[in-house]
Amino acid sequence: MKKTLFLALAAVSFAFTACESKKEENMEAAADNVEAAGEAKADAMENQADMVRDSADAKADAMENTADKMAPATETPAEEVKQ
């Protein structure tokens, strides 16, 4: 009888310790919200960095294309300049 009563009390105590309180659930939900907000902010910053990088690449490509279209510089040999 004592053994059965002890096992029943142990089972009940484990059942109560397994249940989370509302305060704990609210704190975990708040932590999840903070984590989600941080992830969203990090994603937005990564997207902004990608746009800046893409813009710089496009500007550099346009400058290189403009340079490629320029007339080639004519070089005068040093001996011709002396004469």
Summarize the topology.
Elements: H1 2-18, H2 22-69, H3 78-82
Can you give a write-up of this model?
With 83 residues, the protein is an all-alpha fold. Helices cover 84% and strands 0% of the residues. The protein has 3 helices and no strands. The chain has helices at 2-18, 22-69, 78-82.
Which regions contain 5 or more consecutive residues with pLDDT less than 50?
none
Q: How many β-strand stretches?
A: 0
Percentage of residues in DSSP E strands: under 5%
Described by the principal axes of the CA atoms, the overall outline is: rod-shaped
Overall average residue pLDDT: 82
Helix content: over 70%
| Succession of helices and strands | HHH
Radius of gyration: 36 Å
Question: How many helices in DSSP terms?
Answer: 3
Taking the alpha carbons of the first and last residues, their distance comes to 123 Å
- What structural class should be given to the helix and strand makeup? mainly alpha
Largest sheet, described in full? none
Give a nutshell description of this structure.
With 83 residues, the protein is an all-alpha fold. It has helices at 2-18, 22-69, 78-82.
Which short descriptors sum up this protein?
83 residues; mainly alpha; single chain
